[in-house]
Design goal:
alpha+beta; two-stranded antiparallel ribbon; about 20% helix; globular; v583 fold
């Protein structure tokens, strides 16, 4: 979420503070970060890399799935989007 904080309100996730909070929480369940995909609004930390199912089980934090839906006709733009989490049982 922190990579595109402007989108957070569109998908119902608050603003910059919520984006930072969500990204920090997600970082707890990933193994590392990718230095090739640095995020300026996250103090140039890398994007999360490698979901660790053990951390999901230990923390109870499930991955956030962020989606965007484009219109079927080119040039019209985005018609929907949102955030979802799933039960750890599905992982």
């Amino acid at each position: 979420m922190i990579a595109a904080p402007g989108v957070t309100r569109f998908v119902g996730a608050g603003g910059m503070g919520a984006a930072l909070e969500t990204s920090e929480e997600m970082a707890e369940i990933y193994l590392s970060s990718n230095p090739l995909f640095q995020i300026p609004s996250w103090d140039f930390r890398g994007a999360c890399l490698g979901l660790d199912i053990r951390r999901v089980v230990e923390t109870g934090i499930t991955p956030l799935i962020n989606t965007g839906i484009a219109h079927r006709e080119a040039g019209i733009g985005q018609v929907g989007g949102g955030n979802r989490t799933r039960s750890a049982a599905l992982l």
